[in-house]
Amino acid sequence: MARRVRAHDWEETPLGSIETWPQSLRTALDMVLAMPRPATLLWGPEHVQIYNDAYVAIVRTRHPVLLGRPAREGWSDVYDTALAPLLKITQAGQATRLTDFPVRLEESDGQVEERLFDTDWSPVPDESGRIVGALQTLIETTDRFHVQTALRESEARHRLLIGSWAQAVWETDAAGVVVADSPSWRAYTGQSLDEWLGYGWLDAIHPHDRAYAERQWRAAMDARGLVDAEFRLRSPDGGWRWTNVRAAPVLDVKGRIAKWAGMNIDIDARKRADAVLRAGEGRHRADLEQRIQEATAELKAGRDLLQGTLDASTDMIQVFEAMRDEAGEIVDFRWVLNNHTSESRYGEVRGESLLTRNPGVVVEGIFDAFKRVTQTGRPEQAERHYVHEQFDGWFYQSVVKLGDGVATTTKEISDWKRAQAELLRLKEEAAATRLQASEERFRSFAENSTDALWIVDARTRRLVYLSPAFERIWGERREMVLDDLSRWVASIHPEDRKRALAALPGALAGDHIQIVYRIRRFDDGRIRWIQDRGFPIRSPAGEINHVGGISQDVTEHRAMAEQLRQNQWRLWTVIEGIPQLVWRSLDSGQWTWASPQWCDVTGQTLAQSQGYGWLDALHPEDRSRALAGWERADGSSHLDMETRLFHAGEGRYRWFLTRALPVRDEAGQIVEWLGTSTDIDDMRQLRERQQVLMAELQHRTRNLIGVVRAIADRTAGGSNGLPDFLARFRSRLAALARINSLLSRLDSGERVTFDILLRTELEARGFAEDGLSDHILLAGPEGVCLRSASVQTFALAIHELTTNAVKYGALSGGAGRLNVTWRVHRSQAAPDRLHVEWSETGVADMPEDGAEAQGSGYGRTLIEKALPYQLGAITTYELRPDGVRCTIDLPLHAGNGRDRR
After folding, report:
1. What is the 8-class DSSP label of residue 292?
2. Listed residue (72, 55, 579) closest to 295, CA to CA
């Protein structure tokens, strides 16, 4: 910029030719050009702007047109709203500092971007003391603001991931005594805080399980191992629910147990289903639990390792996730992870926008650096003077790609930058009488600095000064290198030597240099990473007579950055390895991400699942209900619903339990939802089968009682006294028992024929073999064997037809007749089929077809819906004017029709 300033045509500007400039302007300009941080000078009534090299990153595409232009012209988009008020304050002789100051700037492409800055404004007087200019130093904080936001959101997602499949999370001290509250435990068990503390948790355990639970806990404490136990816990409604408790010791740096961390997973539904699951299902469940246990242990180990690594560092360690627009362009970053050092400076910022929280990152080029690393994958390091928001200092920042975002480590380097400033101040005081005192102050600072400070004579290229920190970093006495600079060259790693030596000529030419290289220590041979910064030191005449520099040992800093990247990668590997289908969504139910498990199960790609695309994987009947669940989700509780998902591998729909929890920002607003979907299809099938069996049992019991009552009435009407009634009634009850005994024989492997089934059912209603010809005609082949799997349902249908005939139809009395005929259709290409026709005539007062059923309607529903669904039958059911006509056509044998057992 110094060459550009000298070459600029100043006669065309309000300042006029350089030769006419006052000494105050020349002095102020020299200060601005020598400053390493972004700085600009606005001079005269029209505030003509002059700036240094570092300021170019702030103005971006406005450079070089901005040089020498009045501020109103160069910054027309923000002059009235931002610059004019600050210039007015400065003109009054007051200095101003602004932190995280937002400015909406228009770029060359017409886009308006809000950027944040930390900025200082200082008045500049002329020789008479009159304020004629303003000095502005600034640093962009936009990127930093978004870094803090993304880190907070990341930790919230980790917590919610655990919360989505654990019902209680808690901690105890090293002795296993509960000393801290766990709202999730108390909500799960109904205990109060006083009941929970100490060993009060034992009171919530079922009395039969209490001793076992305590033994498991004591054994784990003695072995310093994991707790994995299952027992029953009291629920708030007074009942008992099965839970799986898992806990592990958390060790301090000396390997001692600092505390115990644990969680409870509700397994009540699984435990109840275990009673009806077969042995194979038990093995499947055990395998699933083992994988969940392994995934949980690995997730916790990775989490503890990552958190311990982060919190052990004195540098600020942050992780950000890219935020993209509809075109896929990165428009911002969101904080997802923050270590303790970073939180002490930023506070809780996870989930927040970087540009909103720290707009100064745009001015300083940090935001652009984050975008480049995310897009190219190439790591970057930079030294930045950040004077925005709550910061005012120098920082060294390393940025590496992590997923669709970046991980950064930021080290405060203000101390050695102050040393650099001290060196520059020596240049300004070289011609003054205070030079000696200034040099003494510099030496005092340098002698106590943890970084190695050095000065090289530009003419002889020999070291003229080397601070004591060199001996600690290089493991060699300073005198040895001061006498022979080649010893420093020899310490550089061979792979880095050429690059390191090539940097010095740049500093001699007036450039500020920065290079990272490796050295091998002289005393123990260990490899250390060095970050070296060099800068020219000019004489009063502007000539470069020395080059000063600061060498900093960044070995631990680089190792920490690499450890962070590896730990984060392992953490995401564990998350993607759990059996649940994991996903993220906006507040309205529009998905932003789905795990590979979702894509494997549903067959969708990640792009297909995003937005509302995940609805395509749901059963059509469940989609509106799922959307209604999202409309009701207000964040006061978790989202919980059961839907059917298409399983691409099986080619059918399976039932899944979906649960999601909201992720909130610092203000408590929901920024997204994190959820899981768990396969519960097998458990639902068992439950539905049990419900069907119970319904059938209840209905058959009611019918059986009705049949007994009808038999009693019919027997009483035709009996000659009580002895005759008892004989007939007992005979018919025995017939009724035979049909039920007939059904029970299926478990022994016997086959039932249709004619025996039909005659047994009629005899059970009081129509003995010798009396069938009066009102009943049966015609068909004997010995037609029915499939074992179909007898129960088919017999129930015959039972319903017979019961209705006795109650309301042809067998209820009068002139009614019942004709039952059957025949067998045989085919080589398909299984044999039995065709049965049930026809009642002579029945008075028949209801119209479609009228409300006289009984419960269960029999007709069974024939028209259950038989086709369960047995593959073809049925008809008609209410004719003189009686019922029903046909049933069903397969006799499964497979190829050869089964004749």
Report:
1. H
2. 579
